[in-house]
Automatic annotation (TrEMBL), chains A, B:
Name this protein carries in UniProt: 3-dehydroshikimate dehydratase
Reactions it catalyzes: 3-dehydroshikimate = 3,4-dihydroxybenzoate + H2O
Keyword Metal-binding: yes
Gene3D superfamilies on file: 2,3-Dihydroxybiphenyl 1,2-Dioxygenase, domain 1, Divalent-metal-dependent TIM barrel enzymes
Native source species: Microbacterium aurugineum
InterPro entries in UniProt: DSD, Glyas_Bleomycin-R_OHBP_Dase, Glyas_Fos-R_dOase_dom, IolE/XylAMocC-like, VOC_core, Xyl_isomerase-like_sf, Xyl_isomerase-like_TIM-brl
Amino acid sequence: MRTSIATVCLSGGLVDKLHACAAAGFDGVEIMDADLVAAVESPEEIRALCARLGLTIDLFQPLRDCEGVDDATFADNLRRARAKFEVMRRLGASMVLVCSNVGTATIADPEVAARQLGQLADAAAEYGISIAYEALAWGRFVDDYRDAWNIVERADRANLGVCLDSFHVLSRGHDPAGIEGIDPAKLFFLQLADAPSLDMDVLSWSRHHRLFPGEGQFDLTTFLSHVLRAGYTGPLSLEVFNDTFRQTDVTRTAAHAHRSLRWLYNSTVRANGQLDAQVAPPQPPHAVDFVEISGSDLSSVEQILDQLGFDFGGGHRTKAVRLWRAGEASIVLSEEPRAGEPHIEGIGFTVTDAQAAKRHAVSIGATPRFRRTRAGDAELPTVSAPDGTGIYWSSASTAESWVAEFEGGQTSEIDSLHGVIDHLNVALPWHEFDEAVLFNIGVLALDPGTSADLAGPYGLVRSQVMRTRDGSVRLAMNLAPPTAPLQPRHIAIRVDDVIAAAERARRSGLPSLPIPDNYYDDLHARFGLDDEFLHLLRELNLLYDRDANGSFLHFYTPTVGKVFFEIVERRGAYDGYGAASTPVRLVAQEDRRAG
Amino acid sequence: MRTSIATVCLSGGLVDKLHACAAAGFDGVEIMDADLVAAVESPEEIRALCARLGLTIDLFQPLRDCEGVDDATFADNLRRARAKFEVMRRLGASMVLVCSNVGTATIADPEVAARQLGQLADAAAEYGISIAYEALAWGRFVDDYRDAWNIVERADRANLGVCLDSFHVLSRGHDPAGIEGIDPAKLFFLQLADAPSLDMDVLSWSRHHRLFPGEGQFDLTTFLSHVLRAGYTGPLSLEVFNDTFRQTDVTRTAAHAHRSLRWLYNSTVRANGQLDAQVAPPQPPHAVDFVEISGSDLSSVEQILDQLGFDFGGGHRTKAVRLWRAGEASIVLSEEPRAGEPHIEGIGFTVTDAQAAKRHAVSIGATPRFRRTRAGDAELPTVSAPDGTGIYWSSASTAESWVAEFEGGQTSEIDSLHGVIDHLNVALPWHEFDEAVLFNIGVLALDPGTSADLAGPYGLVRSQVMRTRDGSVRLAMNLAPPTAPLQPRHIAIRVDDVIAAAERARRSGLPSLPIPDNYYDDLHARFGLDDEFLHLLRELNLLYDRDANGSFLHFYTPTVGKVFFEIVERRGAYDGYGAASTPVRLVAQEDRRAG
């Protein structure tokens, strides 16, 4: 597979973009004319730079509104095109994109479009240039790839073919199966973009909200399957217009983009049963093995764990790392002088084959991460998530072999806490959200679950749950509004009896997050709870939710640095996260910070 | 006119919101139940705080999905409602909003809705509470205010009336003239919101994109005229859900909100010919009288003006202020030790009646601004724009009387520059944009002109021109992407011969912003300009645009601090700003900064 990307996906100047594309591992680029026009470097310099960086210039995009016009307009279009073909000669680019006319077309006749594209192709041929003709979803007369192919067939020129763009096909709901009917020699180019399901005009949707493959709701695996079965052998190229990516760091976005293509290609190959021996399969996690908290002083975290009823699992025999356990829930504390405030530093997952999980992750562009081990220490394959969090895998067959490295742990007390890690709640800056979605799908093999907009005191928080199908691993990702302070992250421990857990925490002197009386009056109004139960909830600062499947009770610890804990109990088949109570929790935490 | 605002418009906790509403001058508030539920203060405390602040609680919003349901569901709804009526009793609120059912309604019969609302009203009556019933634009069976009124009429309870919301009426394109057919005794409440024209689903449009009156595309003056003619005498209340306002400073947003209501009310009264003697009419500007640049060291600015061919107009007789003039274009330089980098500090406008302009501005909430004058100095009525820029007005009859305060100016040289201020280009942080639109419409009496999305190297820049109809005053407002550095602002001087101006600047050693060769190759392709003209443009770093009306030539000076200058020439009836060249200019300026 050759990979390519349109320079319009990235921020900054053209030279910076090219360096970033090469560093990310792309084989080629589509150059948007506007990027070249604004560059101080000549076409010859850009050509030479691409050659040095090992990038081919797969496509150039200088033309719009060419065909379907009257003869005088077409003559001027041909003049414009020749001037751009001249630029392409200097640039060393041999394929040009022509999108269906959106602005100036006055003639709906495909015969006229074919004649004019044929003439354009003949002019291009003089420069050794091929034309890839693409139906835009909002083209005035041509807005379906099948019509574009029909016009290309009519024009019948060797250097005229079609360009397919997944957005233009799927946004209109056109069946991509028809792609297999196109002559493979005429499939000149392929542009890929994902997008969220949005009910809005297709032009704004395309201009502002495209996403990299895997981050939206399009079925790109099926789309690409049709294209590959049709016999397409050119590059897979990304063309993603997105307000966020245009603003973010170019090197990081290019790496992110390349990961999305590798993920899509691997998924498609796998879906078609054409298993490449080199491509390790993804390893969906069975459970959260442990969560690692790091900081320069973790004594407050340790105190909270102790007060919650965690057992001390011992100190690591060679590192300044301590283990705390509550049944299946393991928290690893790594104290390092320069680690700053307490924060979630890493997450361990149990998978079928830990080495395969890492090989798969690296194959789609995850960054390997160094983990210091001494003789006899367990090997935990490790990568870094885009936000820097460490991802550790241990094989189910050897799970918890690392636990034996901890010495001096205490045996379980009678009233110690027993639970599992129910979910992690991870706040992300707005411009890192889509990248994290892709990482969680592609590398961690999680599926998108429910999503919701929650009203916080400083703006709406978009929440997206990523999970395994059975719910054994759940990450709730929160997208904070741009101006709001980034929320701390938290670890939710699920227990069988949250009331007992709350009472135990209270006995040991742990203050739980105080919840206002008005909240309990509201619970009374919403659910008609009986007075005794309501009184108990109020006394213990427990939050409550109920739906058709069951109910949810939970409480929060104070925040230490950038982390806090939540203790939850799921009754019946309740599968949510108490979202209705989130605004109350956010305000209460804000009050604590301010107070 | 009584003014009110829904607490959901603002950020932060309920107590902060109430203080901000009172400080902004609101008479009352609509309290959103979620704000109360999350508050640590009891309903009694909130009631007492509102009383101390002089705020009435005009509406409470705790109920949804009440009517059009089966009997068992309605019985539970009634139970929920009674619990909330009890909270209202404690809160001292006597009107509750009931929106048409969007979630649980199963019965489309207005008779059933009327019966259930009647029962709800009877329960409310026990608590002395009135119900305002509102048709949501996306209500399942009731989505038109005329249907809501029909149901209220059928139910026929003294304490049941309708609530009108401009968004729900205008977003659906319903004719607001029918409001005049509603019994005025049944017009219980009025919610006002503006919105941009967007082609998207109405629920997302409402939740995320509402604007304060004057900032969007709804004809609220006509809407409010119908409501007032119908005999409505209750408060005008704002209900604006907007992702931006929820994040911005609560005090500033409340003041901004109150300005929008005053502007709307004044405009509506004026449009109906009911001139209130206390309400001064707006004063559309005739011209930009001057622009004031401030800074701790303005020598670089002074050198650029000198090199451009501005004449030194003298020093102020009592202040450290100097005047530079190029024909009609006046630049005032205020050097102050702590003024920081050079920046645009103020803008002077010529109007028919300067005192009336200020009275009008203050009547809709603009902040008066102190301006130090000595005996004999001209009185320039002054306010501050929301971003802190000073706005000065001088009456046309006494225009430039302030010029006489400057002494020691030089007489015009032979090749000095002659021009007028064509436009100002003002970059704004994203969360101050709508506020500035309202200020420019309401206080400066400018109209929205063209708007466009321009691709900058670090994201799309939304550009909105505000202008007088004749184009004599133009402000181009640019909304920068959140993470991009805020662009400097600039002053565009229009001359008759920009080529001569560019040559003069070059002779005096002023480096103009260098424009890449590729840009001129592109001009050649786009416009087929002849070689000699193209050569001239290239030599002088002139940018060029052409449309059906005429053409536009311009160049830029280097940036000093936060300001730079543009010299423009409009040929024929060209009325734009060379937007197609803006990406090239932005990249060139970015290269200068980095280089």
